[in-house]
Design a protein that fits this description.
The complex is a heterodimer. By secondary structure, chain A is an alpha+beta fold. Chain A is built from six helices and seven strands. In chain A, helix 4 crosses helix 5. Chain A starts with 12 loop residues before the first strand and ends with a helix. Classes of the chains: A alpha+beta, B alpha+beta. Chain A: Keywords: Coated pit, Cytoplasmic vesicle, Golgi apparatus, Membrane, Protein transport, Transport. Chain A: It is a peripheral membrane protein.
């Protein structure tokens, strides 16, 4: 009957959270419109649940009507929420791919990279996923897009000094 | 926090500055703070400022901040529309990209509406980078602004074949997601996806496609058959676990939806199970988990194939990971059999002991009980064993499920008569050791079992061997620390015990002992009288007085036991929850009739008491003896009804057996079916459940030897069983016969109840609401826009199923009535059968009457059905046998290198002199087309409707412009006088072509052809109405014959329905009658017959000209086939 029920507008990935072992949120991306209060509640709840799990446990858990897929890389937990019918393994792969991208971009990424260049981490995520869907499956293409955008940014920055006075 | 507020103040200062770089930096900081959980919505306007910076650096930050903190409620969001539009059309692809990314996060319905066209243009951007983003974001746009789906879909479909793999996969993603929500609209894309699936090597894409097919197969079973092969190939060949997992999941889903009619699906299931076994055996916990998860899906339909892997699953119970253990537990539920139940439960009991953490232990506990009690204790062969398991479970500390155990104890003790003696002895032991259970903690849920124990001991006190001891245990001062409701049960059951002891002693002539026990009661009861719990206090003081009275009598040496025992006489039988409904309505009682005139109060208030009454009524009829005369009954009923109507708290009594006993002494009247049991029951001391396992094994061995003898006997016995009793001792799998022949007393049913499954259908079932008669021809108002638009238009908004709901609400009242009739009909049938079964002989003539009326209705129903089906199936565009080729009612109007126009004409019944012409303009060039204007040379008969004040020579502007490659639809209204003849109107479209070289003015001439069919409106017609119409005789007749037709009749009808707006009235083999109506009310009836290679059509119509023109058009259509 699933096909007849007026489903909420939901997509593959509901949200992605990055948090440290201490439970500090490092990055959050929401692909569903939720109020801030809701987001905070979900975050708190999930961080608690995930951190409570033992290292040898599997990476999936059922939470509300969603499935949570998480993976720990060094001191960071990457945590995604997907729908019931979605494929856990591919989500795990998405997480891994994202970590690889961060790694390539920052050069052996660590938590600090993500704290200091958090906007970059977001940019990379945005190039990789759009609206909860995988946008580009090729690592090379994602990185190329980011690099070019960065290049553009730098070239603009160079002549920014002169221009800004014009604006002022 | 102090630091943060300081920061925020700083940021506020920075935001006030004019320097955009400082501002951007401030916004960047805010974004970070937002992540830490601070509210930054106050800065929304500043974010927009930064978004609109010309520098990419700042723009990027601005969009990031926006995407993180904007949501639909952000009011400044509408200010962004123009900025975003500007960025979307920016020459810099990264500007566009960043705008698209941002938009994907905060798109609102308004933004979606305003920007849909811009994004659509971007879908054909030269850079794949932009194309792919645009395609993906379209999904978001569709969700927010469903109207955009129709115009955008063709382009989206094109993108499936985009040269860039990224764009292609994006398109697959979007269509898959759309299709998962509303698969039926995307069936037509199946072949395309099938091709993609077999050719693609990208696992990401493959997974999506496979998922899509999983959604499609329930709608199109043939697809499933086709899928199995490539999927199994993939399963064999792929090395990617995620793909393998998806394939297996889809195969399972496909096989479930196919469940029958697949010859070799056991092979596929076997393959899946094998692969899953590999997953489960893997050392990776994730794979193990998923393997078990998928296994449980198979379990539902193919339990056999999973059962063979029991070893593996039991192994998983020992896993370190709790979530894996829980998954394995789920699976166990389906794996038990009579053979292995004891073994499995034993294993679980060991786990219960070992388990740390109460949640897991509780889970185990509930699972054990679930497993044992499933399908009416189907797998339990030895109830003594089960009782001891339950008793063992009571030793668990800190479980929340005491009530669950208690409920099981009660259930088993009540329903399995043979076990009562054993159960009572066990419960007595529990009561004796109550301090162990209760002392742990007050909050401990386990003390609930004492409730059950006390009740069982009291109720079945005749089985108690040392009643005195138990009574003393119940009178201990410790008891007063128990929760109130348990104490109350204690008090009540003490008296039962007391009564039976009294009787025992008196019969044995031990008067002193009897007095002693009375004295004991009088001494101990006051502690309960002082209870703070009202219930306990009330019962205790009541009973205390009773016993004091008994004591007086005893002193006078009056034998009292008989009378005391009479207080608790009668046996309790469980009543089935359905029993209520099955009580036959007594003769002469019309439950639908008002007993009082309906009061003039608001309706909603009336209804409630009525329904309650309705049910109550039935219950009482069971208790009352039939001797009570009608009048008396009616009087009482009325009184009761009034009482209930006035009492808002009237709730029907709970079906739980023990409560019933206390609340309604009338239970004695419930007819009890006596079962003779001659069960050899040894009570071997205090056996542990483990012992039973051994015993069982021995027994089974023995049984094997005696099997032949027994078999015969059993069979005989079985045949003699009362039909209302489930016997447990069917010859179970192989040789295992249960330890003792235990009859589970099925729940009580009223005497003349009908053992039907009818009532399994819960009237409150939410799906029932969806159970709409879909075969009924659609009324005009609820018609889906299938027929007049091209295929694409059948797509509905992805998240709303509005038309369906509309159907529900707009259902004509007549229909409802019919339904009611049907239902009543059913009811009558049931009633009749009941009467038969109860062997009540009814007066004959009444029966006959019923039969007659039923037959009538039946025949009516039948004819309706047969007439309804064909049009529905045709209208939906799919037929049982073969899929229809996609049809489009849009015809080419005119075409030149710049533009292509297709059109369709629709009439509507509300207005007999107007038709609407929908024209799709498609820009074929690479230039921009604008200032389009459409003009038509009016004829006397047909005129274009122009805005007031404009002359006949003015054209009507097309309300949009066309970027390259875009198509859009405009509608023009025409008025006409006569519709009996086809019309042709000459017209011109003028437009300006704008490209890099400048603008040129262009013209395109066309001829608008109003066929007669376009004046027809598909109208459903019942066959009886159709027959009447033909009989009336005022129709003109004409006929045609077309040779050389090779397409199937089904297709042919579909074509006529589609292109000529007819609906099928009735179809018999290769002959069909069809009907349609013109906008001016002409009836057109057709009889279509298919011969070897020809088709003949006879037509009847009010107007002969119209008819002959229509037939001519039809001839043309058909000759093309």
């Amino acid at each position: 009957m699933l096909f007849f029920s007026p489903l909420l507008p939901i997509q593959q990935m509901q949200f992605m959270l990055l948090f440290s072992r201490q439970g500090k949120l490092r990055l959050q991306k929401w692909y569903v419109p939720l109020s801030d209060k809701e987001k905070k509640k979900i975050t708190r709840e999930l961080v608690q649940t995930v951190l409570a799990r033992k290292p040898k446990m599997c990476s999936f858990l059922e939470w509300r009507d969603l499935k949570i897929v998480y993976k720990r890389y060094a001191s960071l937990y990457f945590c995604c929420a997907i729908e019931d019918q979605d494929n856990e393994l591919i989500t795990l792969e998405i997480i891994h791919r994202y970590v690889e991208l961060l790694d390539k971009y920052f050069g052996s990424v660590c938590e600090l990279d993500i704290i200091f260049n958090f906007e970059k981490a977001y940019f990379i995520l945005d190039e990789f996923l759009l609206g909860g869907e995988v946008q580009e499956t090729s690592k090379k293409n994602v990185l190329k897009a980011i690099e070019q955008a960065d290049l553009l940014q730098e070239s603009q920055n160079e002549d920014w000094g002169g221009l800004s006075e014009d604006i002022l | 926090a102090k630091y943060i507020s300081q920061c925020i103040d700083e940021i506020k200062q920075e935001l006030k500055q004019d320097n955009i770089a400082v501002k951007a930096n401030a916004v960047c900081k805010l974004t970070y703070l937002q992540m830490l959980g601070y509210d930054i919505s106050w800065a929304a306007f500043n974010i927009i400022e930064v978004m609109s910076a010309s520098k990419f650096t700042f723009k990027r930050i601005g969009y990031l901040a926006a995407s993180q903190c904007f949501h639909e409620g952000t009011d400044v969001i509408m200010l962004t529309t123009n900025q975003i539009r500007k960025d979307l059309s920016s020459p810099n692809q990264y500007d566009t990209g960043v705008a698209l990314t941002g938009l994907s996060c905060f798109v609102t319905p308004d933004l979606a509406r305003d920007l849909a066209n811009d994004i659509m243009t971007l879908m054909s951007h030269t850079k794949p980078y932009i194309r792919k983003k645009a395609v993906l974001i379209m999904y978001k746009v569709f969700l927010k602004y469903p109207e955009s789906l129709r115009p955008a879909f063709p382009r989206l479909k094109e993108k499936l074949e985009d040269p860039d793999p990224g764009v292609q996969s994006a398109a697959v993603n979007v269509i898959c997601e759309l299709a998962r929500r509303n698969p039926k609209n995307y069936l037509s894309l199946a072949p395309l996806f099938f091709k993609l699936m077999t050719s693609s090597t990208n696992n990401w894409v493959l997974i999506k496609i496979i998922k899509l097919f999983g959604a499609l197969t329930p709608l199109e079973p043939r697809l499933g058959k086709k899928l199995i092969e490539p999927l199994t190939n993939l399963i064999h060949s792929t090395s990617a676990m995620s793909l393998l997992y998806e394939c297996v999941n889809t195969v399972i889903a496909v096989l479930i939806s196919l469940s029958s009619g697949m010859p070799n699906h056991s092979a596929s299931i076997q393959l899946c199970v094998q692969k899953l076994r590999i997953l489960i055996e893997d050392s990776d916990q994730n794979l193990k988990y998923l393997g078990l998860l998928a296994m449980s899906k198979i379990l539902k339909t193919h339990p056999k194939s999973v059962q063979s892997h029991k070893d593996l699953i039991l192994q998983c119970l020992d896993d370190k990971d709790e979530s894996i253990r829980l998954r394995a537990l789920d699976l166990l539920y389906g794996m038990v059999s009579k053979k292995n139940l004891m073994e499995i439960v034993k294993k679980l009991m060991i786990h219960v002991d070992k388990a740390e953490g109460t949640t897991y232990r509780d889970e185990l506990l509930t699972k054990i009980i679930d497993i044992c009690s499933q399908s009416n204790y189907q797998y339990i062969t030895n109830f003594e064993w089960y009782i001891s398991i339950l008793v063992e479970l009571t030793r668990l500390e800190g479980t929340r499920h005491g009530h669950l155990i208690a409920a099981q104890m009660l259930d088993v003790a009540i329903r399995v008569k043979a076990i009562r003696k054993f159960a009572v002895s066990q419960m007595a032991m529990l009561l004796d050791n109550a301090h162990l259970i209760a002392s742990n903690t007050q909050r401990n849920g386990i003390c609930e079992v004492l409730y059950a124990a006390a009740w069982i001991c009291g109720e079945f006190s005749e089985h108690l061997e040392e009643a005195n001891q138990t009574l003393e245990a119940m009178l201990r001062p410790k008891v007063t620390t128990l929760p109130g409701h348990i104490q109350a049960v204690y008090v009540q059951n003490m008296v039962k015990l007391y009564a039976s002891i009294l009787q025992q002693k008196e019969q044995a002539g031990e008067k002193e002992a009897a007095q002693e026990i009375t004295q004991l009661m009088i001494e101990r009861l006051p502690q309960f009288v002082q209870s703070a719990d009202l219930e306990v206090q009330e019962r205790a003081s009541c009973i205390l007085q009773l016993i004091k009275y008994i004591q007086k009598l005893q002193v006078k040496e009056v034998p009292v036991a008989e009378e005391v025992i009479a207080l608790f006489a009668g046996e309790l039988n469980p009543v089935a929850p359905k029993a209520q409904k099955k009580v036959p309505v007594p003769e002469g009682l019309d439950l639908d009739a008002w007993i009082n005139e309906p009061p003039s109060d608001s309706e909603s208030e009336d209804e409630k008491p009525k329904t309650i009454f309705h049910e109550e009524e039935q219950r009482h009829t069971r208790h009352r003896q039939p001797e009570i005369d009608e009048e008396e009954l009616a009087r009482r009923r009325e009184a009761r009804k009034q009482e209930q109507a006035n009492n808002p708290f009237y709730i029907k009594s709970s079906p739980s057996p023990q409560k019933r006993y206390q609340d309604t002494p009338g239970v004695e009247h419930i007819p009890v079916v006596q079962i003779d049991l001659s069960v050899p029951l040894k009570v071997p001391g205090m056996p542990m459940s483990d012992q039973y396992v051994k015993l069982e094994e021995e027994r089974r061995h023995k049984q094997k030897l005696e099997k032949d003898k027994k078999k015969k006997k059993q069979k005989k016995e079985k045949r003699g069983k009362h039909h209302r009793h489930n016997s447990l001792h069917t010859e179970s799998e192989e040789d295992i016969a249960p330890a003792h022949h235990v009859d589970i007393i099925t729940e009580e049913m009223p005497e003349n109840a009908l053992p039907s499954d009818e009532d399994d259908k819960d009237p409150n079932d939410p799906y029932k609401a969806l159970d709409i008669d879909l075969d009924k021809p659609l009324a005009d108002s609820e018609k889906l826009p299938v027929q007049r638009h091209r295929n694409v238009e059948t797509l509905k908004s992805p998240d709303s199923e509005l038309p369906l709901e509309e159907k529900k609400s707009k259902k004509p009242k007549k229909k409802e009535k019919k339904h009611k009739d049907k239902e009543r009909d059913k009811g009558k049938k049931k009633e009749k059968e009941k009467k038969k079964s109860s062997k009540h002989k009814k007066k004959k003539h009444k029966k006959e009457k019923e039969e007659k009326s039923k037959d009538k209705k039946k025949s009516k129903k039948k004819s309706h059905h047969s007439e309804e089906e064909p049009p529905a199936s045709v209208q939906n565009g799919t037929l049982e046998d073969e899929p229809l080729p996609p049809m489009s009612s849009y015809r080419l109007l005119a075409e030149n290198p710049y533009i292509k126009m297709t059109y369709d004409i629709q009439g509507n019944l509300q207005n007999d002199s107007k038709v609407t012409v929908s024209v799709i303009f498609e820009n074929k060039s690479t230039s921009f087309l604008k200032s389009m204007e459409l003009n038509v040379l009016d004829s006397l008969n047909t005129k274009m409707l122009r805005p007031e004040g404009s002359s006949v020579h003015d054209g009507i502007p097309v309300p949009f412009q066309l970027p390259p490659g875009i198509s859009n639809e405009a509608q023009f209204v025409f008025t006409l006088q006569s519709i009996v003849m086809a019309q042709k109107l000459k017209g011109t479209l003028s437009f300006i072509v704008k490209n890099d070289e400048g603008s040129t003015h262009e013209k395109l001439d066309f001829k608008l052809h109003f066929s007669c069919a376009s004046y027809l409106i598909t109208t459903p017609c019942y066959s009886d109405a159709f027959a009447k119409l033909l009989e009336s005789g005022d129709l003109h007749m004409s006929s045609i014959k077309v040779d050389g037709i090779s397409i199937s009749f089904q297709h042919l009808l579909a074509k006529i329905c589609f292109h000529h707006h007819f609906s099928v009235v009735e179809r018999v083999d290769s002959c069909a009658s069809m009907y349609s109506r013109s906008i001016q009310g002409h009836h057109v009836c057709l009889l279509v017959k298919k011969g070897e290679n020809s088709v003949s059509i006879d037509g009847k119509c009010n107007d002969s000209t119209l008819l002959s023109n229509l037939l001519d058009e039809m001839k043309e259509t058909l000759s093309k086939c």
